[in-house]
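User: Hi! Is it possible to get a structure for several chains at once, not just one? Here's what I have:
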Amino acid sequence: MIYLDHHATTPVDPRVFEAMRPYFTEVFGNASSRTHRAGWQAHDAVEKARKQAAALMGADAREVIFTSGATEANHLAIAGVAAAAPPDRRHVVTLVTEHKSVLAPVARLVESGWQVTELAVPPGGIVEAGAVAAAVGPQTALVTAMLAHNEIGVVQPLAEIVHIAHAHGALVHTDAVQALGKLPVDVHALGVDLASFSAHKLYGPKGVGALFVRRGVEKRVRPVVTGGEQERGLRGGTLNVPGIVGFGAACAVASGEIADEAARLEGLRDRLWAGLRERVGEVSLNGAMAPRLPGNLNVHVAGVEGETLLLGLTEIAVSSGAACLSAEPSHALLALGLPRDAALSSLRFGLGRGTTAEDVDQAVTHVAEVVGHLRAMAPAARASAGVRG
Amino acid sequence: MAYSAAVLDRVRNPQRVGVLPDAPEVGTGEAGSMDAGTFARIQVRVEQGRIVAARFKVFGCSAAIAATGLVAEWLEGASLAEAGLVTPERVVQHLQLPEERVHVAAVAVDAARHAVRDAGEKAGRTS
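Assistant: Yes, the chains can be modeled jointly so their relative placement is included. Here is the combined structure:
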């Protein structure tokens, strides 16, 4: 099976795995144990990983708060900022295309009487600065917008959004999960106040992530997971030392390779797109082509039903325009203006570190075969005779 | 969506996909619509009151493909009277269709009924 679903998750890089290995059975101390060497060694490993992660995201080490993943980081950012916001700020701005782990804590704020503006996006998927400016006001506590989209790969104009939000005294959070390790990310340059990251999207282990909290902003975030003083009081709980070590190592590995890898992936992605257009035909691109994550392609295939297409694509791992394996189309694709059945017959390809040109060519051949088989099954335009139901 | 082996097999290895050339003994029936997401066309060739060949075309989910293929399979070799015994309930049961997909069985069976009726009417006109 050819794995082309790198936006869903990535395999742990062997170099990362090796870095993690000692921290299960050899260096196994609790990083919060202050009184013995086992704890100090674990603590040092965590702090090294913190520096590695901070370096890749353009932050200071003290601004990195480790969590159990990006979902938790999103909750800390959104619920945490809301809980600490002054009483005259009860408004949040977000985009309709955000990941559910952002939309869910935002929705919960509505239950406590907050106002929420969910901005629509044009078919290219990139929000218009004017729309953001019209939505943000003195009552806005937080604007949250994903840096690079997990389904269609497009990149939002975060620097402009920050400019607008800060002019009104609002904080800015970005779910930067898909961008880290694929695009250069510099949270200081972007000016964001909070940013969420996840290790398993960049060849690190699952179950660990981070929230970047800009220096000074920590006073404006109320912790969600309390009961321990870890992570500067922002996130209680014994640290996942091996996971954190893995996260740091994954960041270190990625940092050396971003530019070259981005160019390589773009080339492969363009090869895939050209191949699909030529050999499958009647395919269209969902979302703008640029700016876009280098390895991402999201396409609608005409004349086939999505679920059947997915079931038939046994030789490649891709995901569809449906939310998981439900029959529901992705809310993000619908927000781009795609009709429901088009969203369901869309395929998301995520190329990655291990993807080769051969993989791409084989994938194209396979998709062409399956699509051909399904299109041949479909009725052509109205039969010349017969009784219609 | 958890599909039975009966469904998956008919999607991966469909039998009787195709068309029958227009002829007095060939009846054609359709049901559903592309907009609705399920569209089935079934054709039957009838000789001396028996369906000697059945072919189908379908657009839709895996359940729709399997249902239409199953109906075509049941029609082939059946007498016109036996063809009437094909019901959506039987299709659902045989394929163990999940709740969300049972409606496609009705589309497949409708297409079959129209095809059989069309064949009967054409036979009536030529006799």
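The beta strands of chain B are 26-33, 38-47, 50-59. The interface with chain A takes residues 1, 3, 8, 11-12, 14, 17, 22, 27-32, 37, 39-41, 43, 57-62, 64-65, 100, 107, 110-111, 113-115, 117-118, 121 of chain B (CB under 8 Å).

User: Great, thank you!
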